Amino acid sequence: MTYFLLLALYLACAVQAKTYKASITWYGTKDERNSGNCNNTGACGFHTSPGFAAAVSQNLFGTDHGVGEYCGKCLELNIQTDEFGRALNGTGKNVVLVVNNVCPAQDNRLCAQPDLQTPNHLGGIIDVNVCSDSGARSAVFGFSGKGLALGTAEEVDCGSWNGTKVEFGSGTSATKSVGSLTSEPTTPGTDSGAAVTRTTTAGANVADVELKWALGALLGGFWLCI
């Protein structure tokens, strides 16, 4: 019994875990496109208070406007290099964000991937455009002095995300993310945001001790792997 449950856990992890090579950018107050406060916009109809948020490229989001299929999902970001392939120091690690906006393909080279197999010109299969006003810019880019980088984006369970979703009230417009394409230095600590914590789920209420242990491992590992 234990063997089959652990095998199921392994297969669940293999199927569920999705990791993308990503270009990582930022948008919001004081970006080069004058996007404004990104906490006031969002195609998904909500912002975060608190909590790190981001837009994703249209190929992952699912549409160029309105509510996409990726709304409300969470990604864990890890920066690896700058846009020239040089290793970066001082960046945030294992930063979890919730998706609440789209980076449209039109007129945006970084977000113009036609599918999830074809990378953009920097090699990113997707682009993750973090919302600076949610605190995500400082959390992700840290002390690297960068605003454009390459790394990985892993889809994770939103139990790993620390924050609260706030729906927009009547009359609040939801607009697209267009992002910042520069490497403008980041000044850490200038935007707000709570530290990310990871939670796990474990345990199962069954009579058999061995089955209880195995199910606990299965459930706990399943939450971790997704």
From TrEMBL:
InterPro entries reported in the protein's UniProt record: RlpA-like_sf
Record field: compositional bias (Polar residues): 175-190
Residues covered by region (Disordered): 175-196
Signal peptide coordinates: 1-17
Keywords: Signal
Protein's UniProt name: Expansin-like EG45 domain-containing protein
Source organism of the structure: Tothia fuscella
Source taxonomy: Eukaryota, Fungi, Dikarya, Ascomycota, Pezizomycotina
